[in-house]
């Protein structure tokens, strides 16, 4: 038994079809578009250079952890043995404003923070600075070793153009920015025509 609602839906659908608003092939074309979008995403995500970047980021993360461990576990403890260092470097701090119970000195950062003191944790900064310098130095060594073992160096020789002051490869003959000669090429005769005989 048809209801008033179902007849309204049939009438509404036929009106939409006549007006061109409802495409009976719309579901098929939408599915095709979704499939095309998915295929495009997969071809983008599985490109060789995207996978190389993912592997590189993973290796870089592991390398960073390794160098951080080298700095904080191997290099910094001997520095803490120096006469003016009475604790690990990352535990060094300076109290700028005492907390509620500031009648005695704080032995650790945790005690000072628990008391509500305002502290300047310069030891943590020095620890991070040493880690950064360690990572930078290790990467520089790796880049030099790679350059010695392969024909292509990672570290490029860069000079400044004397005219526009932009950075240019040390092997360049002309500046890419201002096109001026860097090796004195403007002084060389470049004409392909033979020299005229003097009369």
Automatic annotation (TrEMBL):
SUPFAM superfamilies: Gated mechanosensitive channel. It is found in: Membrane. Keywords: Membrane, Transmembrane, Transmembrane helix. One of its GO terms (molecular function) is mechanosensitive monoatomic ion channel activity. It is a multi-pass membrane protein. GO terms for cellular component: membrane. It comes from the Eukaryota. Pfam families: MscL. Its main location: membrane. The chain crosses the membrane at residues 129-147. This is Gated mechanosensitive channel. It comes from Coprinellus micaceus.
